[in-house]
Amino acid sequence: MTSTASFPVPALLSVDPGEAAVGESVAIDGRDFYPGLEVFFGEVPSPSVVFEPGGAGGRVLAEVPAGAPGPAPITARNTGSAFSGSLPFNIVAVGGVFIRGDFNMDGQVDISDPVALLRHLYLGNPGSCLDAGDVNDNEVLDITDAIRILAFLFQQGQAPAAPFPDAGIDPDDGEALGCEAGAQ
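The structure corresponding to this sequence follows.
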């Protein structure tokens, strides 16, 4: 005889720490955690979910999956259950990991990036990853970078240099700019 019953929906209570880099583990406390529990950071599943010894099904250690820096609310589900409610979480950039063109480091290249870049260039607003704004990878931040993002977004222009479209490190490893972890 095979049971068709599913586990209850897990309840997430807390996460410690509230932000971490890709590959680091975070502790998640909750209720109704059962074997096969899946933990998601945003929409990306954790590559490793381990029940903490003595946690009695109420604490797991989950590895932060590869993804762009920024908000990644944590959710979970047991086999056959619906998703839990979410806990706020932030994936932080590791020094040098970025998406070229994503100057505001929100995990996507969109109209807000050339605006943030222009605000940096002409109003002195800080940037946490100058390499992300160097769309043509010439180790100089200038108006041509903002124009190139706009051309890519709205005129089928050339895509940003690597790393793009996925997060990564600068393959040319130029030293004129940089990408500082956690700087704002």
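Residues 112-123 form the longest helix (12 residues).
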